[in-house]
Structure formats: structure tokens, C-alpha cells
Write the C-alpha cells for this entry.
Amino acid sequence: MKLHEYQSKELLSRFGVPVPAGDVTTDPSEVKAIADKLGGKVVVKAQVLMGGRGKAGGVKLFDNSEDAAVFAKELIGKRLVSIQNPTGMIVERILVAELVDIAKEFYVAILLDRNIQKSIVMISAEGGMEIEEVAEHNPGAIVKLAIDPAYGLCDYELRKAVADANIPKEARNQMVAMIKNLVKAYEAADAEMVEINPCALTPEGKLIAADAKVSIDDNSLFRHKDYMATSSESAEDPIEAEANKRGIAYVKLGGEIGIIGNGAGLVMQSLDEITAAGGTPANFLDVGGGAKEDRVRSCVEIIMMDPNVKGLFINIFGGITRVDEVAKGVLAALEQANVTVPVVARIEGTAVEEGRKILAGSRIVPAATVREGAKMIVELALK
Ligand code: GDP
Ligand code: MN
């Protein structure tokens, strides 16, 4: 789950990372007062979960509170579109922050490198622009340092990495301290990424996080209930937001065949078979183990919120999950959610006989195998 910039800065600041003073609001009439309190020179920043807000016109610097307030009024309610997010996002909230005087911009991040199965520190003196651009045009300008999970960050290695990244001498001690604090925040928040870009060096020689992005591992959200409260609004898609609220692992994929499976493996297999059969998967959805009737119903409802869905494929193998429970849930859901698209179900496992009896005579088409089911649903949905 991605945190907004203001949430990310609040988290990092609790771990000793310097961030500019600021306040967040949804009400443009509050902006002048907030800006005055900060001394008038402020930056107004759209709090939307997309990259490239600066280029999209969602970040603007002001030397007085009146102009900041005028801009805030235009910005709230506006749809911001960037290269990273062509559909764009509506700005509901803005951050009004003290304007940082920037002499140099650096990049620093802690993130999980799945290839080496370790977290790494990434440092670059080429901050400000997108790190992907730096990686493409000047990969040597990015220094990476793996964090040994047993020993943690090693002080002399970190100092060497900061120097190798060409961080100017006068800022190195601050950078080392900041990275240590970032790692603490990263670990405490069960983050998969914390990123500061730009990490600003002021003309007075002070290092400060002018922007911050944090993403928390969804599997740890039960330990971070305070963030869960905002998780629904922070999802990029309204259906994903609703699924988040209901605690359902759902990812929208944009195709036409809705998919429910129990266990990520079965869902992935369904995605592959549907694609092989010439269809396009609408979503990833894992109902989880031991799913009961009401949960299955909830999952069907979530999938049917997507207007592109022309057919529903259910792929359940009952281990802990009793397939008769699933069958009841699917039937109830089809009725209640007024589902009219074709439905094909492949069910197997615990209580399969009872499950099949429940489905017999309904409009759900049974399939013996996943491959057969995928072919059937693609044919029924797209004919
Ligand atoms: P992003 O485009 O979504 O990454 O948003 P950022 O917060 O990184 O802002 C984009 C750019 O605006 C930064 O790279 C800076 O150049 C500039 N910027 C943001 N905040 C400040 C600030 O406080 N002072 C100055 N001088 N520039 C800022
Ligand atoms: Mn940025």
C-alpha cells in the first residue's frame, strides 16, 4: 500500500529524518492561513498517488500566501495526468509545505531487491528527475548497497557508498545519518520501499527530504491499522479501494473475464489458461483459504463492479475451503448481485459432491478441468 507524501513524511520524521514543516488540507480556504503560518514562502503539492506530479502541474512554488491560495483553489478537484498515469487522478488533498531553498538535489531510497532477496540502499547525486531516467542515461550515477539481513547496515560500507555516489563531502555525514534513519523507518513500517527524491541540500548545507514516498507491504497491514484507515482512499482504482476495505486481495487487470480462485497459484493458472484460450483476464482475485459463503459473495460483488466483465470464471480447489460453501456463496451472489454474464466453475476437492449438487440445475456451467473451463468461459463470454 502506497502512502501519500504527507503520511510518508510524517513517518520518516518520527524516525529522525528532516522534513519541511507543513500542513495538509482538503479545503482551499485554509491555505492562506497555513501558508502565513509557514512564513508565506511555500510549495503547494497535490497529494495523489502517482509519479511525476511536478511535471503534471501538481507541485508549485510560491513566494506569498495569496498566490498559493489561488493555486490551491484551482488544484483541488482537478484531474492530474502524468506519463506514469495517463488516466490521471483527482486531487482531493494538498500539502502546503515550507519552501526549501535547494542548492542540490539527490536521490536516496531503501527498497526490496527481489533478485538478490535483500533490501538495498540506492543513492545518487542525480536527484530531482525520475530515477528510471538516471538508470537509463547514467546508470553509473546510481550506487547500490545490499543490507545484510543478519548484520544490518554496515557503517563503513554505507560511508563508502555515500562517497562513491559523489555526495559532496560537506553533506556526507548527514546523508549517512539520514540513511540509517530511513532504514529504521523502513523496517518499523514493514515497508517495501522508502524513497526521497529530491533529497535537498540547502545553500546553508542542510540535508532535508523535499519529497517522500513510502510503500508498505500489504501482508503486514494488520500491524499498521493506522494506515489501513486510509488504505481505501489510497488505492489507485475505486474497485481496488472497495476490495481493500473488505480485506480482499484484488488487482484489476483490465480485461473481460472475471476470475475467482483460492490461492494465488490457482488464480495465476486461471490467468494463463484464459489468455491461452484467447480471452483477457479482468482481475486477479484470491478468496483465500477456508472462504465461507459471505466472503465468496463479497468477491463476486467486487468483480461485477467492473463494467468490462463479460464472463466469470471460478477456479476452486477445496482443501480447507469446502467447495459446497463456495457453491452456495456463488449462487447467492449471482442472485443478489443480479449477475447476468455467463459463469463457469471448476470446483474440486473437499465436499465436491455436495458442491456439484448445489450447482446442478443452476445457470453455472461446470467444467472438469481448468483448461476446459477457461475455453468454455471465453467462448460463452465473447461470442
Ligand atoms: P514529484 O514530481 O511527484 O516527484 O514531486 P516532487 O515533490 O518531487 O516535486 C517535483 C519537483 O518540484 C522537485 O524535483 C523539485 O525540483 C521541486 N520542489 C518540490 N518541493 C520543493 C521545495 O520545497 N523547494 C524547491 N525549490 N523546489 C521544490
Ligand atoms: Mn519527487
